Amino acid sequence: MTNYINRPRYLQQLIDRRDNGEVKIITGPRRSGKSWLLSHIYKDYLLSHDVKESQIISVSLDSDESDEGNDLIDPKKLKAYLRERIVDDEDNYYVFLDEIQEVESFERIVNGLNSHDNVDVYVTGSNSKFLSSDIRTIFRGRGDEVRVFPLSFKEFITNRSEPMNELWKEYYTYGGMPALLKQRTPEQKVKYLQRLWDKTYIDDVVERNNVKNRQALESLVNALCSSIGSLTNPNRVTNILASVQHVKVDDETINSYIGYLANAFLFEGAKRFNIKGNKYYESIAKYYSVDVGLRNARLNFRQQEITHIMENVIYNELRTRGYLVDVGVVECREKRDGKQVYIQYEVDFIANNGTDKYYIQSAYAIPDEEKREQELNSLKRINDSFRKIVIVGDDIATYTDNNGIVFMGLIQFLLNDDILK
Q1: Distance of CA 335 to the CA centre of its chain
Q2: Burial 274-288 (b: 16+ CB within 10 A, else e)
Q3: Burial of 380 by CB count in 10 Å (0-12 exposed, 13-18 middle, 19+ buried)?
């Protein structure tokens, strides 16, 4: 029996897309498990469903991982390599090309492969060329994206027998990068995560985007990690870098650098949405790290605020489940001390998948009565019928209060894919 985390959510997405005539593009940050998903999990599935080994052609083009990749990034050599192995017009072939962006003019090769009725093409990529907005252009409208994240908490605890509170502490400290499962000591885990930043992520962003000011980029990474869950924009980041880190850089550069980091799938920005006004605020967002362990390691594990870490974990879980996520604000006028005042109440997350929508607050502990009202103010002022939820760090049975607001425990939320419904 194969001994690995099966990642059924992503496997099912690949199964659903099998032989659909489109290029399957598996995107996500480097080392998040994209290659393993194809070359082991999906390959094992195909082999167990009457596909022969010779029908599966897997090529790693990641020069950090494979000597073969160094050679086959030459487009002519790659074409020749594939041509030698696709030898029968009657058999179906499954071609896996890992980190295809390493090959110059890769789209011509991929589109050529995809034009054959008996060739099903899968590629992985970890930079902006694979963002969904570009897929239609690169692959002539025949690209189908599967976004892969680091291990969710539910995946992380697969085959683990330790107490749940110990597993949760390990997860919120070191995160879910798959290779961490091979690191036995805290020291090894820390060094691995910091090495990812220094030798993989930062180097890759600098090289691919021809970044001139590496110091500013690294300072930006630190600032984004430090301000997880806080509203920000390029101007605020510029001021923080100048006042705290003494790094001078203009707003335009910061905006570009944020884009580079987002395009490398290292951070995501959740836009601020006016719920009653039904509109977005320009250029202001909350940024979340793709993995809390990476975030913690970047800050040398100094800022371990469980409230912000929990919020980041909830955001990532919602994104893993396929939701689009905004941060919300409810604007209203209220009378205070005999005067009409303008108030903004924050909603941590608005999660929407086109069919379902949820308003979600993250609260590490169930607040006392006074703070409870403050926590619920925003949700109680939303007048539509979509479900309103508070996720708390405590281990509680899910219940609904007199306002129709649902309370659920964090671990229950993380382990039950359907609990929001």
Answers
A1: 42
A2: ebeeeeeeeebbbbb
A3: middle
- Residue 403 CA, distance from chain mean position: 33
Tell me, yes or no, if the pTM score tops 0.90: yes
- Using the 8-state DSSP alphabet, how is residue 178 labeled? G
* Domain annotation for the chain: domains and CATH numbers: 8-147 (3.40.50.300)
Q: Encoding tokens for residue 117? A: 């009725």
Grouping H, G, I as helix, E, B as strand and the rest as coil, residue 332 is strand
Three-state secondary structure call for residue 328: strand
Beta strands in 110-228 (DSSP E): 119-125, 143-147
Three-class DSSP category at 324: strand
User: Per residue in 268-300, pLDDT tens?
Assistant: 999 999 998 899 988 889 999 999 999 999 999
- Residues in contact with 402: Cβ distance below 8 Å, sequence separation at least 6, in sequence order: none
Q: What tens digit of pLDDT does each residue of 201-251 get? A: 999 999 989 999 999 999 999 999 999 989 999 999 999 999 888 889 999
Span 93-145, pLDDT tens digits? 999 999 988 888 888 899 999 999 999 999 998 876 665 556 667 776 677 88
Among 259, 322, 258, 262, smallest CA distance to 290 is for 262
Q: Is the dihedral of CA 75, 76, 81, 82 positive or negative?
A: positive
Read off the amino acid at residue 414: L
Question: Rounded distance, CA 84 to CA 72, Å?
Answer: 13
Helices 186-195 & 164-174 angle (0-180, nearest 10) = 30
Q: Is 265 left (phi over 0), alpha (psi -120 to 50) or beta?
A: left
DSSP 8-state symbol, 412:
H
The number of beta carbons lying within 10 Å of the beta carbon of residue 130 is 24
Q: How far is CA 202 from CA 162, 189, 196, in A?
A: 34, 19, 8
Residue 105 — left, alpha, or beta (φ > 0 → left; ψ -120 to 50 → alpha)? left
Collapsing DSSP states into helix, strand and coil, what is residue 261?
A: helix
Cβ–Cβ under 8 Å, residues 25 and 146: yes
